[in-house]
Amino acid sequence: MLPQKFHLHLFIWFWVILSFLLLSFLLIAKAAGLTFNFKAKILEKTGLLVISSDPKGADLYLDGKFKGKTPYKLEYLTPRLYRITLTKEGYHNWEKTEKIEAGKFIKENALLFLKNPVVTEATDDEAEFLRTPPKEVVVDEDIKKLLPSGSGDFSWDKTKSILLYRTGSEIWLYYRDKPEKERNKIVARFTQDLKKVLFYPDSQHIMFVLNNELRIIETSGTNNTKLLDLPSLDFAVSNSGEQVYFKENNKIKKAKIR
Fold first, then answer.
1. Rounded CA separation 54/118 (Å)
2. Tens-digit pLDDT profile for the chain (258 aa)?
3. Prior bond of 133 cis (ω within 30°)
4. Which residue in 22, 217, 224, 235 has a CA-CA distance of 20 to 30 Å to 91?
């Protein structure tokens, strides 16, 4: 008969080896981007989400839980919908619902806009920026025939492949390179008519005037944000997107929005 100590040592070594194998398996699975779904009792592929912001250093919340400051990498996310929120003092919040898919990598870069833009009088050189007439937007008649009735305020993105336009109270995008049935996409609809729409310099945002407010929205239709009150429709945006020039009481002013 084997001594009792031998059985104890054998029992201990058994659990040490089992724990080592289990830990090794979990580490290998994690390195492969897998996680164990305890509810479904299966191993499943995870997703990766990298979030940055301009300016950086925004507080990142995932489903209401603080994770860190941007830029931030969220690894091993179980595939599902997540609610992302960015906050930074002095700036409007940024929010988005993101669908994480197995084995997929998503990168988000959020632009944050000031809650209280700094308004000052423009210099003579800056005033000239507003006085310069905008280039005429050319849209082929063949394309116009494919747009809803009453379309106007045309604006092309930087690649000249996406056309922005409005019809009354609606903001639309026309995708030149998509199949004909998928070319027209509505971005947003309001209860009152819009007065002006144009692409923001990054072509990922749309600026528009509603109720004498200059607002901005992402091309996905998210983060509708008020930038400032406008005394008139006579305004222009700097190439950097940081300044808005507008006319007030026969003077040209500038507002720093980022």
1. 18
2. 545 555 555 556 555 555 554 455 444 445 545 554 545 445 568 889 999 999 999 999 999 999 999 999 998 888 889 999 999 999 999 999 999 888 888 899 999 999 999 999 988 888 887 777 778 889 999 999 999 988 999 999 999 999 999 999 999 999 999 988 899 999 999 999 999 999 999 999 999 999 999 999 999 999 999 999 998 888 889 989 999 999 888 889 999 999
3. no
4. 235
Answer yes or no: CATH 3.40.462.20 is held by domain 118-256.
no
Q: The tokens of 35 are what?
A: 């996680």
CA–CA distance, 244 with 228 (Å, rounded to integer)? 10
43-111 has CATH 3.40.50.150 classification: no
The residues near 172 (Cβ < 8 Å, ≥ 6 apart) are 147, 148, 151, 164, 165, 166, 184, 185, 186, 187
